[in-house]
Model the fold of this input.
Amino acid sequence: MGAETAPAAAIDPKDRFRAGLSYPNPLAGNPGAPKYPATVKRADGSTLQVACPVATRLMVALMDMDAVVGGAACHWGGPAALAELMSAIHGIMFSASPWHQSFNFVNDAGHTENGVYALKANYGFAGVTVGDLRGFRSITSKLTGHGEGHIFPEGVMISNGPLGSGLPVAQGLAMADRLADSKRTTVCVISDGALYEGEAKEAVSAIPGFAAKGLTAPFVMVVSDNNTKLSGRCDADAFAQKGYFDGFEAQGWKVIRCDKGNDLQAAFSAVEAAIAAAQADPTKPVVVWAKTVKGFGVASTEKSASGGHGFPISDPAKLRPFVAEINGGKPLAPQFEEWLQSLENAAKAKAEKAAAAAPAAAPAVKKDKIQGGFPKAMIAAAKAGLPVVSVSADLQGSTGVAPFRAAFPQLSFEVGIAEGLHPGGRHLRPVRRDQGPAAPVHGQPQPGAGHRGVQPHRLPGRR
Done:
């Protein structure tokens, strides 16, 4: 195929930009002051009231317990880690009026969206109240497990869920704003685990490249680096990200370190400096590299290898000491105390009803999850000498392959949150789980008809 060598047309500066289509912005306007505030100091010495991160954590704990579809599917560790950074970001954004003409906000970390809902309820943003949080994840609520722009258009600009996908979308928003000659600043929040993803890495490289050519509006990326993913610590369980993060500057980013991402003032100062730097020089995107603690606020989840990724409490009787620790042992605000008591009373009534009921008959057929069969088959195959290998993208527990990993660690590989990274070869056929179609890896088709050995199995989807 011949190369296209024709020179690009010379463009008159007045024709450089194209205004976007005119349509009403569905996002809600600026809210009032937060009901539960905290005070931070700006760079100019003035003060600003932002949403209290402790109140965010309290609401996340209560709404997770109250959720119709709750349990481990309700996240705790991620929103607890990001509470201070989210308070800082929203405090600055809501200081501009109208805020959505000055900022695009993209939350790539969909597993932390319940923390953003709590923050919005604190502000009363988009009409969300603390009472609305009690319907979290119900079929009648717009507060879904991950942010859904089509369900909650006044509160969620970009839907989230598949980790790493929000960053390239944020890149597109910044490029579109530049094309429209808008100076709007794009802020994208992303977790360290999501930066395992190939599409995120591509955007990390592309954003400073396009910015250097003057093709993006101001851009800020906020990274929550807590070295923790769903199944354990990143460096111990998969591989460390520090070397990659050390390369941000070499790729063209201005790096602002925040070693205390769970200190509200430190988080606010870092975000404020990043936004100011990006707006002063849009050709140089800025990354806030913030060290956070997943599950921050409760010692047991801070120490947990998963950071308390899913909500760790299933018994409402254990909720009171949990929220007491979040609140530093101080009395709860009346609204939160009433909520907690209603959960405790409902649990007590349910237990009394169950105790009074006749014992249920044992099921005729024992039921088990489909995931339980995968490791049994894999272990049997490995014991028989077959070349079976497990490649997991941070989902050993969710997909059921953890027993195989324990029995055959030499045949198990954890690649982090990187669904596209599936090693393969002619003689070893991995058992894998992913979200997309089977694709060639190292030149070998997967699955490969005609190959002997254990063929890949598509395990249940992640999100």
